[in-house]
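Q: What would this chain look like folded?
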Amino acid sequence: MRADPSEYKLVSPGNLQAVLSLMANEPAQWLPIAGGTDVMVLYSAGKLPNRQLINIWNILELRQIAVFPDRIRIGAACTYTALRQHEIVSREFPLLAMAASWTGGIANQNRGTLGGNIANASPAADSLPALLVYDAEVTLISVRGERRVAYRHFHTGYKQTAMAPDELIRDISLPRRFSEYISYARKVGARNAQAISKVCLAALGDISNGTIRDVRLTMGSVAPVPLRLTETEKLLTGNKVEQSIIDAARKSVTKEIRPIDDIRSTARYRSAVAGNLVAEFLGQLGASETKR
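A: My prediction, written as structure tokens:
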């Protein structure tokens, strides 16, 4: 059943303070909407529960990318296209730029926003593993002030987040300390473009004299939330990239993830692919020193 437009209310305050005031006066009643790529799918299907929408697309302070010596700060309403085209993002955070290029088609990338992808909290979202691997921090704001939440603590369950009903994502900060790491990203879907992932991996590695000094592995579509593979990371750190450690990593990955059977794939397939992706990354990491 399609939605009836007369049942919905959309306001466009034009400034951040007015948005926060509305959300404070009626917590959980107002839904912020920027690009609308997720919201409008639910609306068109008549499944959008919120009847009161606040337009935040035209609030410029939410659409800026600010660069500092130690970090980069991305406004919540920054689009995937802006991420793909930004010089610092592309050079220092290639996994995020790549995830932005995976998200839908060009039209979706021109409208879809990073903050919306985070707030929607789908475990299959393309950008979330990249944010997790880069140690992102989310700034939440309300009339009560602002607070910062480490991204690893932001998703609390399937489609659940640490945001209070009156809070809005203002920006996402990423530390500028991973530019020398070897990076790897892979998305496995039903087709090459505009597909929801069955499994995706974002990985970073630092290797010296054949020994892994640091490794960071994050996955999407294998658990209720984007997942950091901390036990597999511990297993790999301090070891050389040899077949025995790659085989051990495969087994560790299957123990850490929590895949399910759904319309897109099976738990068994996801487990096998997850192990393969980590093995492929380790192979590239081990070979990277010979290319330097």
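The radius of gyration is 20 Å.
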